[in-house]
Amino acid sequence: MRVGIAGLGTVGGGVAKLLASQAELLTARCGREIRVTAVSARDRERDRGVDLSNLRWHADARDLASDPEVDVVIELIGGSDGVARDLIERAIAAGKPVVTANKALLALHGTALARMAEAAGTPLGYEAAVAGGIPVIKALREGLAANGIRRVYGILNGTCNYILTTMRETGREFADVLSDAQKMGYAEADPSFDVDGIDAAHKLAILTSVAFGRELDFKGIHVEGIRHVSSLDLQFAEQLGYRIKLLGIAGVTDHGIEQRVHPCMVPLAAPIAHVEGVFNAVFADGDAVGNVLLTGRGAGEGPTASAVVADLMDIARGHRAPVLGVPADRLAPAGTAPMGRHRGAYYIRLMVRDQPGVIADVAAAFRDNKVSMESVLQQARDPAEAVPVVITTHETEEAGMMQAIARIAALDAVQEPPRLIRIEAL
Ligand SMILES: NC(=O)c1ccc[n+]([C@@H]2O[C@H](COP(=O)([O-])OP(=O)(O)OC[C@H]3O[C@@H](n4cnc5c(N)ncnc54)[C@H](OP(=O)(O)O)[C@@H]3O)[C@@H](O)[C@H]2O)c1
Predict the structure, then answer these.
(1) Which CATH class is domain 342-423?
(2) Which of 304, 308, 309 to mutate to test the pocket of ligand 1 (most atoms within 8 A of CB)?
(3) Is 96 noted as a catalytic residue in this protein?
(4) What is the pLDDT of residues 375-424, one digit of tens each?
């Protein structure tokens, strides 16, 4: 099977190396050889750590789609549009199987691409797009195919998990830890895709589609990142028996499928609370199997290449499944439950001036919006400075909660915008 690779960066270079180093094992397992015949990147001179001298070089990656010596196209350039999208569409139109790790592109155009690929009768592999080396697409689409899925959630961004873990372990603040993570290569120079939750939302959109057999709905996802999490909140979380994780969560509710990405208070007793550092994890609740938790490395050269090559092996073996688990023309229409209808418990931290009647005003705002408080924690008392007051609530509806918070934020004694973190019953 002759393969063309577009993009020779972290993942593309890793795939070229893995195909070379595991050649014998792959041939034995697939019953045929998988050989790179053509490549494309921007800089032809750069040393990629693999010998490219005998390979066809395409200055325009799109030409891989029409190269007669390429049977399968691997897109590892990235970006939701532009060259990556053109290349994939041309390859599918030419009837060539495609493998990609491009979550941004799939999150936005996945339904259309799945339709195109199935109409052309050609596979489209994207295991590497969600949770890197963890075979979560295969698990949901194949291993758990006999289950109705009630809920799927996960730690889908290693950069955020690394930052939250380090903040908790060292007591340092977000900006400080982020800047170190950038120096160590765990975070991009422009970190917003990661720390603002967008990357996790791309992956959640794909997971939701596969888990629930629906068209992708990236725009419907409620997304919050981790910039507003402070080391104080991480400490309070531990005191209350929780750990703060950025989760992507999709589940069946009375109002439809909900999809949300935001920092969560996760009970310390939940296994996912102990998935730390750059590791990812995906949890699924199936009606026949019960709970399944997969963890591993969600990014990096080796783990991501492992997933890309596994997709190639499926193609080499002639193994097929519908791209999104359900044939694309039978996917349920996109649509996500409104966040205002979300039900859950909440952690709220206020910085208040310690004066008579404050807690009564806060309690009234909750009462008037039908939010019932579970606990109130005020440890320090300082007449001169604002002190933290931490409140947890019983399960309530998000819309009422937000109204209560707006009223509390406007109180004279409340010195900073209230911090709100949702508590998850996992
Ligand atoms: N890195 C990870 O751990 C990881 C994990 C999961 C998924 N992914 C996904 O995998 C994809 C690739 O990520 P990466 O980290 O490998 O990125 P990367 O290191 O930045 O590599 C991108 C590659 O694409 C090439 N390229 C850029 N524009 C091009 C163009 N117009 N034509 C041809 N080649 C072009 C670059 O060429 P030059 O080298 O010549 O500049 C580079 O080799 C992305 O979709 C990403 O989201 C990455």
Answers:
(1) alpha beta
(2) 304
(3) no
(4) 999 877 777 789 999 999 999 999 999 999 999 999 999 999 999 999 99
